[in-house]
Design goal:
Length: 133
Amino acid sequence: MQRYFTITQLTQEFDITTRTLRFYEAQGLVTPQRRGRQRLYTPGDRTRIKLILRGKRLGFSLAEIKEMIAMYGSAPGEAGQLRLLMQKIDARRAELLEKQRDIELTLLELDDVEAGAKKRMSELQVREDTGTP
C-alpha cells in the first residue's frame, strides 16, 4: 500500500481540483503532512476524501460529513458514527421523498395546465376554421 499521496495524484484519482482539496484541508477534513511546499496525504486522508465525496453525492453538507468523520476516531467511535450515519440517512431520505412528492404534484399540475391549453387551442382552431369570432 502506498504510504503517501500527492495532491496531483488525489485530484486526478477523484477528478477534483486542487482548490477543492485545499478547501477540505482548510475545513479540517484532511490534514496532509508537509515536506517543504509539498503536501503529502496519508491513506487515511485519501479515505476521508472518498467519504467526503460520497457524502456530497448523497446530499450531506460538509458540516454533517465532518461530524460523521470526526466521530470515527473518538468516543463513541465507529458504532456512534454508524448510528449518526443512519440518522442522517433517514433524514435525507425523508427530505428526498418530500421533494419527490412535490415534484409529482407539480407534474400533475403541469399536465392539467397543458390539457387546458391544448383544449383552448383546439377551440381557437375550430373558430379559425369556421370563421367564427
